[in-house]
Amino acid sequence: MTTFAVAPAEDLWSIGRGEKVLLTIGILLTLLLIGVFIFIIRMARKDEE
């Protein structure tokens, strides 16, 4: 998440509305994929035990 903090807030807000929506969707999809990935790993570990 450090990559997002590097860019100043002003630069993020100057992005067009459409690009801002795409950026938000991209971040949400990434977080969703990470969550699913962690969930699968936890399920696999429970099966091993």
In short:
The protein is mostly helical. The chain is built from three helices and no strands.
- Rg, please? 16 Å
- Low-confidence parts lasting 5 or more residues at pLDDT below 50? none
Number of domains: 1
The computed structural class is mainly alpha
Strand content: under 5%
How far from one another are the termini? 32 Å
Q: How many strands?
A: 0
Overall pLDDT confidence: 79
Globular, elongated, flat, extended or rod-shaped: what is the shape?
Answer: rod-shaped
What count of helical segments does DSSP give?
A: 3
Describe the overall structure:
The protein is mostly helical and 49 residues long. It has one domain. Helix content is 86%, strand content 0%. It is built from three helices and no strands. The N and C termini lie far apart (32 Å).
Topology:
Elements (H helix, E strand, L loop, with lengths): L1 H5 L2 H5 L3 H32 L1
Q: Key terms for this structure?
A:
49 residues; 86% helix; mainly alpha
